[in-house]
Amino acid sequence: MAIGDCPNPRENCWQPEGPFSDEDHIYWPAHVYKKLGWVATRFRNLPDNREQRCRCEHFERHSEPPPEIPSREFMLEAVKAAFQTGQIQLTRDQRRSLGL
């Protein structure tokens, strides 16, 4: 995902370039997931955990408290499922650590 057209442009958009969309992670902030290791980082970056969103909405959402961090077991199962359905690739070491 990258910068793109805004799905619902506002007349009062405060962006100097005008309305645009960008990638928004459902789980944030990134530094928390990085500290938790590769499973948490991969979980945060799964296709199901990202969406293209109006930059104004993205900014507004991040002015609220972040969502709770899911359990490690939940993240492990989501990463395994994404690998098994071909959504992501994993290194040999990552597959081994997941028992795949």
Tell me about this structure:
Helices cover 39% and strands 10% of the residues. The protein has 100 residues and is α+β, with helices and mostly antiparallel strands. The protein has one domain (21-97).
Estimated structural class: alpha+beta
End-to-end Cα distance: 28 Å
Order of helices and strands: EHHEHHH
Provide the β-strand percentage band.
5-15%
Shape: elongated
Tally of helical runs: 5
Radius of gyration: 16 Å
DSSP, total strands: 2
Q: Give the rounded overall mean pLDDT.
A: 89
The percent of residues in helical segments reads 25-40%
- Strand count, sense and closure of the main sheet? 2 strands, antiparallel
Number of domains: 1
**Low-pLDDT windows of residues:** none
Keywords:
alpha+beta; two-stranded antiparallel sheet
Topology:
Elements lengths: L20 E5 L4 H6 L2 H7 L5 E5 H7 L10 H13 L7 H6 L3
Helix pairs in contact: 2-4
Task: Summarize the entry for a quick read.
The protein has five helices and two strands. By secondary structure, the protein is α+β, with helices and mostly antiparallel strands. The chain has one domain.
